[in-house]
Each structure stands twice: as structure tokens, then as C-alpha cells.
Amino acid sequence: MALIDLIEESVVKVPLAASGKDAAIRELVDTLVSAGKILDAETAYRAVLDREAKGSTGLEEGIAVPHGKTLAARELTIAIGVSPAGVEFGSMDGKPTRLFFLLLAPPDQAGPHIEALAEIARMSRSKAFCSSLAACRTPAEVVRLFKDE
Amino acid sequence: MTRPIRKIMVYVDGSEQSITAAQYAIVLAKSLGADLYALYVVDTRALAELVKSRIFLESEQEEYRRDLDGDASRYLNHVRELARRKGVPVAAEKASGAVHVEIKAKVAALGIDLLVLGEISQIRSRRDELYNETERAMRTAQCPVLVAKGEDKIWDLYESLE
Fold first, then answer.
1. What CATH homologous superfamily does B7-160 map to?
2. Does the beta carbon of A121 lie under 8 angstroms from any beta carbon of chain B?
3. pLDDT in tens, chain A (149 residues)
4. Shortest CA distance to B149 belongs to which of B114, B128, B118?
5. Which residues of A are catalytic, by number?
6. Which of B14, B123, B133 sits opposite A4 (nearest CB)?
7. Closest partner residue to B54 among A59, A109, A118, by Cβ?
8. Which residues from B are below 8 Å from A121, CB to CB?
9. Which of A58, A90, B33, B151 is deepest in the core (most CB within 10 A)?
10. Judging by DSSP bridges, how do beta strands A97-105 and A77-87 pair with one another?
């Protein structure tokens, strides 16, 4: 399954209101709950925090890819967040994180989970794409950017 | 004239599309009297890429590798069962590496006459053309390739197979 198949306006949060790491994760998880993608917010939130406790998924250039395996997700699902102000996420280069790709998958869907993460890893290497994404001000703009990309 | 299709291989990645492809491959194998192979590739290249990009920890790579091995067994067993119901023998093949590279290599090693792939996602970005493994396999395999489209029709064909 292509990443674009998972992206719809209801799973995009622009702008993220949170100013801290845990709050940003919680806001993205809640976005997925509102979109009807997951049922149990607390279990999903814990799964992501447990993973973050082993090492931050804050990469360079303002990108973070928090993820987790959890039965709270019935299928692979993604939430995208854009924080114009940036969030301190413990990233590798110490810069605030502005783009968030939160992925949740049930434990028996490792293949699609890895495929989607690899796709995000490739996209995150495109500075032009990341700049365009960070400049999006509405979920519709984000979805359009992915479809045109 | 020798039969043009004596060996059929279906690539299975666990997606619904690849399971539909497996059903169609079973129908073809039975109808043509061809040998059937089912291949699952553990995408270790993607795992390595995720470690390199620091999205995965080393320990996570191993954990997901085990998960993928489990997926491989589960999905290949599912195809075995689908084939068994229709009295079609299937040889399950598991490989690891870059998906399209392993498919191409297996096609060559087994002397496959027809590669059957699942339908490629219809909602697409241009980047998909470069990185979608099914599409890359379609472009790089050195044998005729069939993309199994039409889930309902294929299901009917499979179900009606004696």
C-alpha cells in the first residue's frame, strides 16, 4: 500500500497546538481517534511513548517519525502534523521539530508498516518537499502536496 | 510447439492485492498445467534504510525482521492453503533483500515463464513510480508479467475452479 493511500484531510493536523513532545504525540493520536482510525487513544499513546523512551525519533531538519506497534490500530494508519512554531522533540541536530509523521500499525502488519516508514524516510531527504510541507496551512494543502509530489 | 507457460510465480507481500494475484495464479496454473511458485521477500533493504535514517534503532531492526519472517510464513501458508483447496501444488519460496531485485533473481533462477503481481495502487504520486516495489518488479523482471486486476472476477474464477 502506498503512503498516499493513507493520507486524507482528517488525519492531518495543521497547525499543531502542542508545544511539548508528549503533548504533540497526544494531539496526533487524538487526531486519529477523531478520524475513526483508532479506538483506544491511551493504548496507542503509550505504544508511541514506549518507543520514544528507547530513543527519540526526532531526525534532522525538523522532522520526527514517532511510531509504534499496537492493537489499538486495526490497520496501518498515519497522522501528519505541522507545527509552524516547532516542538522540542530531542532531535538529532537539536533543532525544533516542525513536521510530524506518526505511524501506528497492528503487530501483524510489519510489512506495510516498514514500507510506509521507508517511504517517509525517502521523502524526508527532499528538502524542497519538506519546506513545502512545512509551509502548508491547511489539511487540504497537505493532501494536495502529497498527491502532486 | 512447447507450452509457453510451464512455470508461474506469484509475488506475495501480504496485501489483499497480492492474495488476489495468488488466486489468479492458482487458476492459471491449474488451467495451463503449469508449476506454481509463490515468493515472499523480506525487505531487509528497507529495514537497513530505516536504521540508516535513524528512524529505527538497531534493536528495532531485529524485532521487525522477526516480524517479517513471521509474516512470510503466514502469508505463504495462506497461499499454500488456497492452492491446496484447488488441488494445485505450490512451491513456497522465501528470500530477503531488495524486493524487486530478489524477484528478478528468483525469476531467473527458477526459469519462470510468467510472473503474476497484485494490482498496483490507483492513487499515486510520481514518487511511487520510482519506489513502488511491485511496479519496479514489473519493469525489471526478465519474463512476461501479468498484473491481476479485477478482484471480483478473479474471486469468481477461483471459486468456480474444480
1. HUPs (3.40.50.620)
2. yes
3. 667 788 999 999 999 999 999 999 999 999 999 999 998 999 999 999 999 999 999 998 899 999 999 999 999 999 999 999 999 999 989 999 999 999 999 988 888 889 889 888 888 888 898 999 999 999 999 999 988 75
4. B118
5. 67
6. B123
7. A59
8. 49-50, 53, 55
9. A58
10. antiparallel
